[in-house]
Structure formats: structure tokens, C-alpha cells
Specification:
Blueprint lengths: L15 E2 L9 H11 L1 H12 L2 E5 L5 E4 L2 H10 L4 E3 L1 E4 L5 E4 L3 H4 L8 H11 L5 H20 L6 E3 H18 L6 H17 L7 H6 L3 H26 L7 H7 L11 H32 L1 H15 L13 H13 L6 E5 L3 E3 L2 E3 L4 E4 L1 H5 L49 H16 L2 E5 L7 E3 L3 E3 L4 E6 L2
Parallel strand pairs: 1-10, 3-11
Antiparallel strand pairs: 2-3, 4-8, 5-6, 7-15, 8-11, 9-10, 12-15, 13-14
């Protein structure tokens, strides 16, 4: 499919002032109420009403929605050093605070660090995610998915999101820590994630840092959970170092990696932050991607039938392997199309460190920019009939890179893994894990949605089904 790009401005034209960016009236409180009540619908409505660059608010946060793929490409790739991670909130006396919702849990890992720290850590960790190393984990992806599927019964009512969360946690437990799902380590991890993820979205609110230090029950539970998490992770690090860190698990690899220029490795605190970042990103996002995939398949029998036919022809009664991915183009397309409609990371925040032209407007330093995958992935400019679940969009006769848009479309009309120097370092890991887990489960099972339950997306740090995903399992093999 070829799409003629449209842009928010005429190339080479003088940029307009920030005060000319279109947007809704009603003041900042109106925008805050709209985005807090239903951010997915609110941002989509702003794009359709005002265009690809929209003023959301002026104070306490000067915020703009940016839904032009060319401007997103500039922010994530071309001018990424002027587009820093996180949103900016202005307080009293024009004091600015950069908001990073996951810093309390993840410290200064790749998701939250910036500048030279991020560049050094990225350089150290990149070899851990080379294609050949990920291929070595592929058997674990399919084996854990098969083991999960073994626990279900025909006609059983399941919360598929809960099942996918446990399955992907088991995969990361094995590949990252080389421990089983029922270990004490994973129980502590599970508790810490449960206590802290729901609160992460509130970290954007003024006063959150102060409230987090008060002796409130919820804040105390989060602090206790993080402290317990630190104890078990640092204990694992100590044991791995004592044993020589010669294993194939990612924690051992983090401990043994060295900077090619200096020969210096990571300190324990750095290893802790990166291990938890891999843990969170490696199971939360993939669990959501698979959950939404089964939700969509349950609503579209024709798509499910075509995928099942491909799995039956290629796999029969055997477990999928890495070599099968190239022979499962429709299954691969189903996952990509699911991540278009329900991107696990549904929006990204950047702030300008200098005055910068964005989509034809000169925006001041300190401006927060929202690049929303949810909005761009459902934009009819790039995606005809954008609400339709249509995996054939991806069957174009050409190889499409992980996280890339179909040929003929702007690169950043599809960006589930972000892009540029801050692109998700585990994008290939996550994609192969998703395809193999989907194939391993769907060759044996199909899922029927509960007709009495409305499935509603919950846009927090990631995009989850708000009340889980109740479905009935039906055995195929």
C-alpha cells in the first residue's frame, strides 16, 4: 500500500509561532479533565479536530500532541538530542521538573536514564540482544508457552490477560535470572510490580514525590515492595559474581559485559537497574500484546481461521521453532496488526531542551511533546479503514523489519517500539517471543470472548485490558 505523505507545514516555509498552534479552549483544567477521563478518545479527537500538531495545555505543563510522522521521526531520530526523555511540569516560580513515572522502580535503567548515562548503558547492553543470542532463547519462548497451555482445560473460563502475564513473567524469569516462576525471587518481583505499576501514572501529578515519602498505607506498601525487590536482586547479583557470572542468562551477561574502550563493566546498582528494566519491559509489554491479539482473534473468526490454517499446515502437532517464523507470515502479521490497534506503549513523552521547530511551529524549550502510538496507528491518513483488524496490511511481498511500517508508508506511521537511539533495545526479543508464543498457544487453543463483558483499554504506563480479559478456552489439538 502506497500512501502520499502529508505534513503539518510546507517544507522550507518559515515556522509559525507557538501561540498559533491550534487547540481546544477552556484552559489547562479542561484539557487535564479530558485526558484524565479518557485519554485515548481525547487525544484521537484532538488529532481529528485540530490536525497533526495540537496545543493541549499551557500551564503547569506546556504540552503538545504531535501526530505527524515526519515530526515524530525528527524528534526520535534526527534531532533526538534536543528532544529529551520525559515530560516537564512547571511549578511555582517557573521551576521545572522532568517527570519520569518509572524512576522510583527502575532507577536509571535504559527506560529512564538520559544523556551520557543512557548512551554508555546502551553501548554496553547492545550485544546482549543480537539476533544470534535471541535465537538461543527461542526454545524457552515456545516451551514456556506450551507449559502454560498444558494447564488449561477444554471449556475452562480464563482471564487471558492474567495467563499471558504469568507466562511472559516465566519466560523473563528463565532468560533473565535463570530461575523458575515459583521461586521466591519471582514472587517478590510480582508483588513489587503489582504495587508500583498502578501508581506510576500518578507520578505526573504535582506533589507525588512528597506523598510517596509520607507514612500512608499505599505508599508504605510500595516502599516495602521496592526494598524487598532490591534485596533479592542484589542477592542474585552477589551470587552470580561469586560464581564467575559465566551463565547464559541475561543477568550473568550484564555482569560480564565490558566497555570496549575502557574495559570497565557495570556497577551493581547499574546491573540492578538494567535487570529490572528488562524484567518490566520484557514481560509487561509482551503480555499486553498477546492479550490484545487473542481479544481481536476472538472477535474475528475469519482472521482466526486463516491463522489456524497456517499453523496447522506449517506446524502440525509440533512446537514452533525460530526457523518457523519465516514460514508463518500470517501469524506474524496478526501480531503486528494487533500492536497497531493496541500498542502496548500507547504514548511517549519528550521535552524540548532548546527552542525547536516541530511540524511547522517554533515551540519553546521546556515544551512537552506527546508522540502517541494509539493516535498515529489509527490515523486514516496512513491506515485506510483504521479501526478494522486486517493483518493483510502486512502481507506486501517484502520483508518488514521489526517495528517498521509497511513499504510505501512513512516510517513513523507505526512505531510500537519507539525509534532512534532510544528505541526499545529488546524489540527483536519481544517480537520473536510474541510470534512463537502466539503460534505455540494458537496451534492448540482458540478463545471465545464473553459476550456479556465489554473489554475496555486502560491507558496507564502500558495499555492493559481494564478488568482483565475473560474468555473461554476451546481445545484444537
Amino acid at each position: 500500500m502506497t500512501v502520499t505523505p502529508t505534513f503539518a507545514h510546507t517544507p522550507n516555509a518559515a515556522p509559525k509561532g507557538a501561540d498559533q498552534v491550534p487547540g481546544p479552549g477552556g484552559g489547562p483544567l479542561a484539557s487535564v479533565r479530558m485526558l484524565r477521563s479518557d485519554p485515548l478518545a481525547g487525544l484521537t479527537r484532538l488529532r481529528r479536530t485540530y490536525g497533526p500538531v495540537v496545543r493541549i495545555a499551557s500551564r503547569p505543563m506546556s504540552a503538545f500532541l504531535v501526530a505527524d510522522p515526519a515530526a515524530i521521526a525528527d524528534g526520535l531520530v534526527g534531532s533526538n538530542r534536543t528532544h529529551a526523555k520525559g515530560a516537564v511540569r512547571r511549578g511555582l516560580g517557573s521551576r521545572e521538573t522532568v517527570i519520569q513515572p518509572l524512576t522510583l522502580l527502575l532507577g536509571q535503567g535504559l527506560l529512564t536514564s538520559a544523556g551520557d548515562v543512557h548512551r554508555r548503558q546502551r553501548r554496553l547492553m547492545q550485544p546482549l540482544f543480537h539476533h544470534q543470542r535471541i535465537a538461543g532463547y527461542s526454545e524457552t519462548f515456545a516451551a514456556v508457552a506450551d507449559a502454560t497451555a498444558d494447564t488449561w482445560g477444554h471449556g475452562q473460563h480464563l482471564d487471558v490477560h492474567a495467563e499471558m502475564t504469568e507466562m511472559t513473567l516465566a519466560i523473563v524469569a528463565r532468560t533473565l535470572f535463570d530461575v523458575d516462576l515459583d521461586s521466591e525471587v519471582i514472587e517478590v518481583v510480582r508483588t513489587a510490580l503489582t504495587e508500583n505499576m498502578a501508581a506510576a501514572g500518578r507520578a505526573r501529578l504535582p506533589g507525588f514525590e512528597m506523598l510517596e515519602r509520607l507514612p500512608l498505607p499505599a505508599a508504605r506498601r510500595r516502599r516495602d515492595a521496592r526494598a524487598a525487590l532490591d534485596r533479592v536482586v542484589y542477592a542474585l547479583i552477589e551470587r552470580r559474581r561469586a560464581a564467575g557470572a559465566d551463565g547464559d542468562d541475561l543477568l550473568s551477561l550484564l555482569l560480564s559485559t565490558r566497555d570496549a574502550d575502557t574495559g570497565v563493566g557495570m556497577a551493581d546498582e547499574e546491573v540492578r537497574d538494567e535487570a529490572l528494566t528488562i524484567l518490566l519491559a520484557g514481560h509487561e509489554t509482551t503480555a499486553n500484546a498477546l492479550s490484545w491479539t487473542f481479544h481481536l482473534l476472538g472477535r474475528d473468526r475469519a482472521v482466526a481461521a486463516r491463522m489456524h490454517a497456517e499453523l496447522d499446515e506449517v506446524l502440525g502437532d509440533r512446537r514452533p521453532t525460530m526457523a518457523d517464523i519465516a514460514r508463518l507470515p500470517y501469524t506474524d502479521a496478526v501480531l503486528r496488526e494487533s500492536m497497531r490497534l493496541y500498542p502496548p506503549v500507547w504514548t511517549m513523552g519528550r521535552h524540548l531542551t532548546v527552542d525547536r521547530e516541530v511540524g511547522g511551529y517554533l515551540l519553546p524549550a521546556g515544551s512537552t511533546l506527546l508522540f502517541s502510538q494509539w493516535v498515529v496507528h489509527r490515523d486514516e491518513t496512513w491506515w485506510p479503514d483504521p479501526e478494522r483488524f486486517d493483518p493483510t496490511r502486512w502481507l506486501v511481498g517484502a520483508t518488514i523489519g521489526v517495528g517498521a511500517a509497511p513499504p510505501g508508508q512513512p516510517r513513523y506511521s507505526y512505531f510500537p517500539f519507539g525509534g532512534g537511539p532510544r528505541q526499545c533495545i529488546g524489540n527483536t526479543f519481544a517480537h520473536f517471543e510474541g510470534v512463537l508464543a502466539l503460534a505455540a498457544i494458537a496451534r492448540r487453543w482458540s478463545f471465545e470472548p464473553d459476550p456479556d463483558v465489554e473489554i475496555v483499554p486502560l491507558p496507564q504506563v502500558t495499555l492493559r485490558p481494564r478488568d482483565g480479559l475473560p474468555m473461554t478456552a476451546h481445545r484444537r489439538r
